[in-house]
User: Which sequence fits this backbone?
């Protein structure tokens, strides 16, 4: 432990929040091992570029200092418990920048979404400021755009499954936290199924009260209604129509949500084993040893450095053309 603490003190890399288990070349879909209260390893993050710029990237490392993909290398489940999952925080509560895992880039860093050449920010939906939960994703899940969901009759949105964490603490971008799943909402976005999980950080002071979706209604009255309205209206300031929902906007319970997670995890397994068409999805990983997309630690480091050089080159061209 002393050596680990010394490593964290002397490293120039910012820690990424709460303890989480780092898998060491796990077989496809394997569990992370020891439980969260016994977890000794930490994930860390490394920023490249300036925040609120197109070249900003937040890369992930394990405790040994090796680059990993948060999409593919962080295990879905924390341990053998049925309802404890790793969540990657992309957007802290009350912020507006639309940050997301870059699914099409090597090692899938977090970046700010860009549309029509402009950085994306969500509008403030009265009476709220920015996102009304800590927003992120479950690793090792994928909503297959070629697979029609039987319950919604729509295909997936080509992303990891989204998570709305409702705990009392504002989390940090890049944190990997252990969450309990409470329920799920089926947003239909331009004809695609875009599941929104409702979860709570297991280290939240009130986490022991929450076991299913009805507990959210009981202990946080109005939160689910606010969530539904937020997703319904948040694109209207962009000139788009209201979003639609399956099941008339009904939140499904934990059991339903766990089945959706199981299904999206199986889709991810097929993706990583090249059993389906992932299109532009980048499946490069460091720790899923039986995947054909597996790469070495040295190759991963070279990929990150190539991203840095690419953005330096773009900046040089931009400044040169403006100067001329």
Assistant:
């Amino acid at each position: 432990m002393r050596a680990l603490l010394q490593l964290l003190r002397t490293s120039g890399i910012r820690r990424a929040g709460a303890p989480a288990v780092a898998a060491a070349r796990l077989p496809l879909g394997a569990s992370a091992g020891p439980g969260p209260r016994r977890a000794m390893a930490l994930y860390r993050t490394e920023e490249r570029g300036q925040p609120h710029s197109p070249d900003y990237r937040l890369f992930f490392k394990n405790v040994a200092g090796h680059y990993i993909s948060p999409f593919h290398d962080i295990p879905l489940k924390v341990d053998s418990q049925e309802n404890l999952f790793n969540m990657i925080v992309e957007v802290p509560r009350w912020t507006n920048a639309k940050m997301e895992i870059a699914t099409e880039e090597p090692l899938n860093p977090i970046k700010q979404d860009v549309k029509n050449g402009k950085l994306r920010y969500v509008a403030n939906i009265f009476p709220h400021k920015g996102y009304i939960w800590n927003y992120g994703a479950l690793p090792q899940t994928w909503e297959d755009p070629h697979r029609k969901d039987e319950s919604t009759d729509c295909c997936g949105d080509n992303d990891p499954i989204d998570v709305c964490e409702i705990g009392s603490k504002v989390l940090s971008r890049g944190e990997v936290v252990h969450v309990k799943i409470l329920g799920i909402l089926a947003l239909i976005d331009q004809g695609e199924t875009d599941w929104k999980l409702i979860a709570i950080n297991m280290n939240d002071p009130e986490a022991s009260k929450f076991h299913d979706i009805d507990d959210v209604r009981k202990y946080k009255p109005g939160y689910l209604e606010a969530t539904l309205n937020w997703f319904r209206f948040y694109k209207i300031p962009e000139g788009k129509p209201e979003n639609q929902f399956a099941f008339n906007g009904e939140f499904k319970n934990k059991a339903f949500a766990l089945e959706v997670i199981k299904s999206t995890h199986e889709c991810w397994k097929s993706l990583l084993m090249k059993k389906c068409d992932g299109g532009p999805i980048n499946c490069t990983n460091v720790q899923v040893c039986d995947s054909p997309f597996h790469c070495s630690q040295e190759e991963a480091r070279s990929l990150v450095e190539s991203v840095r050089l690419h953005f330096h080159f773009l900046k040089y061209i931009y400044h040169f053309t403006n100067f001329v």
